[in-house]
Design brief:
The structure is a homodimer. By secondary structure, chain A is mainly α. Chain A is built from nine helices and no strands. Chain A is elongated and about 65 Å long. The termini of chain A are far apart. The structure holds a DNA duplex.
DNA sequence: ATAACTATGTAACGCTGTTCTATAAAAGTC
DNA sequence: GACTTTTATAGAACAGCGTTACATAGTTAT
């Protein structure tokens, strides 16, 4: 008698490790408790930072007992995983929203948006890429959303390459180079380790360096 | 509170001229307890990782009570700061040990050594640059040793620029670009996020891209 | 020898993530 | 509608963490 009604509407019911079929048929007093919980978790993360993101704090923020975090999200791991997915989705959206008159402009716009996302969401970036909350990418859902963000960057590179501004046999490798570089730049900036006076200018200079270094030989 | 004599690097230096104000007048039963404590701390870090680096574990490793970590190193913060200084000193040594027939070779050798340091000391790199153990760079000692490592990288850039392979008005900014890029590359590699099959090859390609992008216009 | 001082070890506090258990409420069955 | 079964909940409790308090032991100064 396992009815898979699931009444979702909340596709964000990620919580991979725990509660695989947990929401099978329970009473579901308020079907979107998980989303409220996630909203509370995000509020705590943004307000208190990764160090303040505790099970008890999130439960209190949501007005429930700490056990609810385990029943609904699979403990702190599930909580963090759900936040990671949110973060990577937003990062992907930032990279996908590139605009500009030509492929070159879109290249630089993507780089600019990446940095702006990180600076606007430092705590998200910290849990996504720093070990602010220790985690791996073993959760398939998290890994998938992270790779989706990377694919958005690959698409930007493909557009730029199609316009002739980038020449390389492996565009995925080019995208990886760019990702490494811009990630390092924002990571160091978030930790206050940029040694130049104008981090924004140095960031633009890095994008210029990458663009020049990736340009095809004739233009080089 | 902070009295960590960073007499690191030369393990044979007996505490003759050292033990400055630390042994103000106390009994100083064994003057190098602090170094033994640091050695124990490093052993725990390497063996257990940042998550296993607890005050109790280090104290047990050193054969003392947890209180000793507070009396000798100023609690966990002092412990981590001392390890950070060790890590940055080694990173600086790695960058300083660049070799090669010419400036170009030294440029790539420095990049190679940076990555090798990170891959050989992942836990050190994690506490230095990731937020594996939350910390800032407010401690002047830590900040100074970190900047010393960066200055080693600046020197490599200066040598490369003197040879005519790099042309830029601000070599510090160039060094910052390179640091950002290679830090991002090794940070992502340590987290298993390199999307290409051969991370080493992609890393070399990134160095090539940087070198090409920083080359003076005529050679470009 | 006596007194002052300091470093140490034991125990405890508050915090964390997590687990256990009893309770209460919903769903299924007659 | 009444009864049984299932399940989520709340509260307390456990082990671990960093840290602190306090009494003790040992060294130094007078």
């Amino acid at each position: 008698m396992f009815r898979m009604d699931e009444t979702d509407g909340v596709p964000g019911s990620v919580c991979g490790p725990a509660a695989p079929a947990a929401a099978r048929r329970g009473r579901t007093p308020s079907a979107d408790v998980e989303r409220e919980l996630l909203t509370a978790a995000e509020a705590v993360l943004v307000r208190e930072g990764p160090g303040g993101l505790t099970v008890r704090a999130v439960a209190t923020e949501a007005g429930i007992a700490p056990m609810g975090v385990y029943n609904r999200l699979g403990g702190k791991d599930g909580l963090v995983d759900a936040l990671l997915i949110r973060g990577f989705d937003r990062l992907r959206a930032a990279c996908d929203a590139t605009a500009g008159p030509d492929a070159t402009a879109r290249f630089f716009d993507a780089g600019r948006r990446y940095r702006e996302f990180a600076l606007a969401n430092p705590h998200f970036y910290a849990i996504m890429f720093e070990d602010a909350i220790p985690h791996g990418f073993d959760n398939p859902d998290v890994a998938e959303h992270a790779q989706a963000a990377f694919r958005a960057l690959v698409r930007v590179v493909e557009v730029t390459a199609a316009a002739g501004a980038i020449a390389a046999p492996d565009l995925v490798e080019v995208a990886q180079q760019i990702w490494s570089a811009i990630h390092g730049a924002v990571a160091l900036e978030l930790k206050g380790l940029i040694q130049t006076e104008d981090p924004a200018a140095t960031y633009r200079a890095l994008l210029d360096t990458l663009f020049q270094g990736l340009a095809p030989p004739p233009a080089r």
